[in-house]
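Researcher: Next sequence.
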Amino acid sequence: MNAPGPGREGAALVRGLRRLAGVAVSIAVSAACSIGSEPPEATPESGAGGDTRWQYQLQGRVDTSVPAKTFVVDLFDTPESVVEELKASGRTVICYVNVGASEDWRADSAALPAEVRGNELADWPGEFWYDVRRTDLLEPFLANRFDLCREKGFDGVEADNVDGWTNDSGFDLTPGDQLTYNRLVARLAHERSLTIGLKNDLDQVAELEPDFDFAVNEQCAQYDECAKLEPFVRAGKPVLHVEYGLGTSAFCAETTALGFESIRKPRNLTAPREPCP
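Model: Next structure:
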């Protein structure tokens, strides 16, 4: 399941390691950018309260009053002023970037040749899987997007659609192709001092956990897959988890026990949010 792309109906916080210039040298991230750290004291300006869980909003004007410690919002649609506002009130802000599929409505969508585009994503008109083997074309394209993420002041990246090898992409992708590409995505983020989240791709969690700083998951409770994320938990890295169809009573006990930061959201990822108690 992939998050709905912005502009249609239908990832946090930095507790992990940053790697600079692709070198496996880690530095401690400041407490203000840590998942699970206490949110800032509530003020009329910040709207922050006692909720350390995350907010996932890709549709509509970002509601900065939501009392979450981490916000995952769209790279292109979120103004720099909103990023600045959230960071000034002590939040960590993660940019959503679709790294595995084209989105026809994006201003830079014509920058890649048609040969890189494969089949349209099921249920997501206007999105087409990338041939992730073509790193010669995709690396500079993604680098430009991650540069924008850094320039806008974001702390990290939620990289979507990094599991094309398990889908009908139109290309003969192997598990090795996907591992190579996903590690490239992680390296590009770390070279820019951005943290990076592994989105779904549950069958490669064990191999990829060392390269990623946190995980973002959709609907592991609904599909009985949450145990696959345990390598992140064991490594002390955050798991940002969202369910769409289940009520919180159906998953919060399980995912809280696992150590996840879990919320329930509408599938179109507008502002409403129901965190686990």
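Model: The chain is about 20% helix and 20% strand. The longest strand covers residues 92-98.
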